[in-house]
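Sample 3 of the quickstart, ligand zinc ion:
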Amino acid sequence: MPDNWETIIGLEIHAQLSTESKIFCGCSTRFGAEPNENTCPVCLGLPGALPVLNRRAVELGARAALALGLHINPTSIFARKNYFYPDLPKGYQISQYDQPFSSHGELEIMTAERDAAGHPVEWGPRKITITRLHLEEDAGKNVHEGLPDTDRYSYIDLNRAGTPLAEIVTEPDFRSSWEAYDYVNHVRRVLQWVGASEADMEKGNLRCEANVSVRRVGDENFGTKVELKNLNSVRFMQRAIEFEIERQISVLESGGRLIQETRLWDDRAMETRPMRSKEEAHDYRYFPEPDLPPLVVSEELIENVRSSLPELPEARRRRFMEEYGLSFSDASQLNSERSLADYYERAANASGNPKAAANWIRSELLRELENQGLIASASPVSPEGLAELVKLIDEGRISGKQGKEVLVEMFKTGKSAVTVVSEQGMVQVSDTAEIDRLIEDVLAANSQQLESYRSGKETLFGFFVGQVMKASKGKANPKVVNEQLREKLKG
Ligand SMILES: [Zn+2]
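Result:
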């Protein structure tokens, strides 16, 4: 981006709250039901049907709000947002407007710009202001493809109509696409962590929209903002914002004008396209929902929710760094998901070697889990089982290389480390006499290298270690090999 331009980005996230039933009726929220199976007079918008608020949606909304640092308002008001769309049978959506469920959140996220290869440059903290988190119902879905006659007809599936959503809106606080990317990932993880939402963009239960504008550095006023929709993954959102920044700057630099509009991201063409001109709030003719009383949230409910929240991911990451001496990136990776953090903590404590436990999980266990499509809590190797393996290596009974084979076998068979080691007759050779014999063979077979080494080419030391390890078929204790070899080479 040219230096004389500044980017301003605000984000809206819609997260589906993990309730069993819809927000204003008893219909199931189950994903994958037959079209229009989960509907009733309330969510079909039939005349005379009255909404009743789902208490669980309020509790989960409170979990989300508190975990994101928002204040819950003692009284909030549901409002009708009026617009017509075929998937909205009532002709309005029940949302919240000037008195939302919660507001004024200060959230600290970790963010980094990325280099050309996409690697984070330097992580640092950044404060984001969340304007509000309010409760609302989702609309249904228009189906334009996938059925035999969708070339001629569109269908409407109202299973999703009335699903509870938390809409989370930020101030225009982001200055780059990567800040927005890191924020959405942060929010997703927090929502999953506290059990408020599955926050899975692929299933559509987390959606985000970005408002993007640019202005010349030093300009006080905001530029014309464009709303981006159809961002089906966090990565697409980041790309769409990047595309949009470039597009807006090039329009303005060539003397053109931007219009306030909604644009859709096309992830095949990798570009944004105009969809419609953007509505203003007054277009929706908001007014208080007459069929629902004000939502009054007691101090007691707030306190109950607050005290039931787990340690949040950022706090836990910092504690992992302090308590277990992990690096930022290791601690972040282990806190990417709650069941993984729990797994790590149990393995770290049981093994007595938190750093080794972290390395084994990051390099070996995660790969095995990923191959099987499992999360840590479903791992066939328990944290205590992994800890036992770490101990066998720490005690010098098997080598690290053997340990990797043992873990794969444990994963496959569910057997313990000790069982696998004894069944496969694995032992690490630490016996100095046996290792000395191997060293002598290696030195004898490589007399030329030995001569070079003795005449000053000390980098050959690694070569000899490698040859000895190879001769032992990976069973020699590398520490003993190093010590003995140093001794022999002196002579
Ligand atoms: Zn219903």
